[in-house]
Amino acid sequence: MEPSARQFWTIVEPLHAVTYFAPDALAELEAVGYRGFWRGYFAGRSAPLGHTGPAVVSAVFYGFAPRMVARALPSVWDLAPPPVALQARRSGAGKALAATFAAHDVVAPAEAMDRIAELLRRVVRTVDGSGRPLGAANATLDWPDEPVQAVWHACTVLRETRGDGHVAALLTAGLSGLETLVLRSHLDLDRSMLQPARGWTDEEWQSASDQLRDRGLLEGTQVTARGTLLLQEVETVTDRLAEQPWTCLSPDERAHLARLLAPLSAAAATWLPKRNPIGLPSNS
Q: Which range marks the domain in which residue 162 is found?
């Protein structure tokens, strides 16, 4: 069966996310001067945008409290500039994935890795960056020569492109980043993990909760049927917007790529904490 854009997201996301959770990836960012998780996170993820400040990054990342972004940006660029962050991020992700594949005995033959990279490169070349700042910024970076790094890079482009579409869907639905987090915390994510990871105060969280109740999206601690439907519509729009790059492959090629990537993604997912703000389960 031909995989959908959502199915590809569940495969792509863990391969990208090693950059946030795997020790090898974090160590590369720390080695160039980004000490502490959040310095490395904001430096690495925003580096494709260039020497960018907190206002732009808050806008495109969407769910973070602006003050949390401002604690890292633009001061991280005094530690090491964006090109250094890009290299450290790519190198660390490549090392983390290679080690993870080896540890789980899912190292694909060289010709299989080359085929994966070739198919992903075709997909990435068709990415339409219109209205997708993070996806477009990542898509303009040089294609890595090393196959594992190439797989990570392609997954990052596709992940950020999908994320940009998700932000557009949330805006269309009239949901702020904080309101989205509050709703999700009553459905499938843990507030005790989510709120501090995004930097919102209790007062801001409560204010967003009150606004959601006024709109009939939240009742007490339960998401209403209307709120659930709104979130489902957001996901439907997100999936539709994420479909475009994959259409360059034939149905057979899409199915073949999904089969090749699935064991690599499952290995990478072992780095996802059981509680994480991404919303995907860990395989650990």
A: 5-271
